Each structure stands twice: as structure tokens, then as C-alpha cells.
Write the C-alpha cells for this entry.
Amino acid sequence: MEYITQGNILKVNDGVVKVGFETFLDIDDTITEIIFPEGLEIIGDNTFFDNVNIEKIHLPSTLIEIGSNAFWGLDELKYIYIPQSVKIIKTDAFVNCK
């Protein structure tokens, strides 16, 4: 999966339909904001597992599914809007988020 970073923002490139298992496990600790493109449909299991510095996540209106433990341990998460298009939120998707 390709993305660009601009300062503390990570922007996933257009054309991505699914973000898979532990995709953002080892991203730079300075990243505090993630922007997903329209067209993304699935955020897989453990996608952000334990990325403690993420504060803001922008989800597209095309998102359908959020996987198990997808946002596990995002201690600093302050903003996320879940669009109406989301039909499935699996077990513990937001466990250990404050």
C-alpha cells in the first residue's frame, strides 16, 4: 500500500480499497493524523495496532467494514467520524482507546 507523509499527516493514496493486517504497525511516531481516500471499503484486523500517537483519523464515505482490533491501543485518538456506510464493526475494534 502506498501513502505519502506531509509533516505529521499520513495520506493513503487513491485507489486503495482495503487496508490489511497491521498495515500501520511500524509507522513513524511523529504521525498524528491519517487520511483515507474515497474508495476505501475495508479496514482490516489490527490495522493500527498500538499506534499510540494517532490523534485524528479521517474515514471515507465508502467504508463498509472495520476489522477486529483495528484501532487497538490508540491512546491519543481524539477524532474519528464513522460514516453511515459502515455496516460491520468487528469485535474490539476500538479496545484500549481513550
